[in-house]
Amino acid sequence: MVDKAFNKVKTIHQVIETVEESLKEVISSAINISVKTSKLECTRAQALASDFVTKNALVSLTIWRIVNPHEIVSFPEAGKYSEVHDFPSSYVLLRTLFEGCVNMYYVLIYPQTADEKELRLIMWDRHACYESAKMGEALKYKQYLIDKEKSQIEIFKERIKNLEMFNNLEEKEKQSLLDTHNFALNKLDARVKIAGIHESYYAYIYKLLSNYAHSGAFALRQIHEIKSPRMPKELTYLQMIFTEMFLSLTLKFFGEIFPKAQTIIAKNKRLLEIIEFWDSYKKKKLKVYSFNF
Fold first, then answer.
1. If residue 26 lies in a helix (H) or strand (E), which one and from where to where?
2. Position 149 in a domain
3. Domains of the chain: total
4. What is the pLDDT of residues 201-221, one digit of tens each?
5. What is the pLDDT of residues 111-136, one digit of tens each?
6. Can you give the residue range of the structural domain that contains 174?
7. Would 48 be classed as within a structural domain?
8. pTM, entire model
9. C-alpha distances in angstroms, 95 versus 2, 87, 110, 247, 251?
10. Last residue of a domain, one of 38, 67, 96
11. How far is CA 110 from CA 123, 193, 242, 244, in A?
12. How many CB atoms lie within 10 A of CB 214?
């Protein structure tokens, strides 16, 4: 676990080795939990939670593969017996993991009343239909398929109107709720705070990751910062730390929604220790210099 790594070792490569061990534990556990809960009877909310866990487990596994590359044998142009450390792509994937964790909390845990929970699920499903219709139009799908998605959107609007909380809103709020195609009523920075994650994570981590996601000048410049064969590994330890963090929080949220998943988690003392650490750590202001050597 990262706190033990920083307290007990002195060099970055020792830190990487220690963090790799705990990250592997979390990824293995996430895959195991995903498999064991995938065919269990559950509610719509629990099914969506399972989707979040599966998605974030797969993303974390891919980050792991980038951090621990195998020799490239299919592409000899890369160099015989070479290993490709694609650290820029790991940043892009980490952004996906970060957003998945935050959105999971916002949609499934943040709502308090039955109406609020139902509204979040309806808006999530409506957003999926909207995006499907837009992509269908862009890719010139058959019109009946696009119309089917648009028809479902109208059904979701009617379901929103039937919610008791909807009738208690001002007319302007009602219309805004019906007109929006987004699943969230809050922007990402606000959703980060709602999830109990310190705002500094959005200010620094999301900004950093977005540079790589958008192939910005800063991200491309970093490619030329590699000065030795050891440096690519050094440029992946932040990804490992935060992959462990956001996947651990994903599992924590899943346990809150799905008691059967919590039963599995509770049997793994080491996993519980890691989850509890990150649940506490997420509330603290991020001090990036503490991760530098």
1. helix 12-37
2. yes
3. 2
4. 998 888 888 888 888 887 777
5. 999 999 999 999 999 999 999 999 99
6. 104-185
7. no
8. 0.88
9. 20, 13, 21, 12, 17
10. 96
11. 14, 11, 22, 22
12. 11
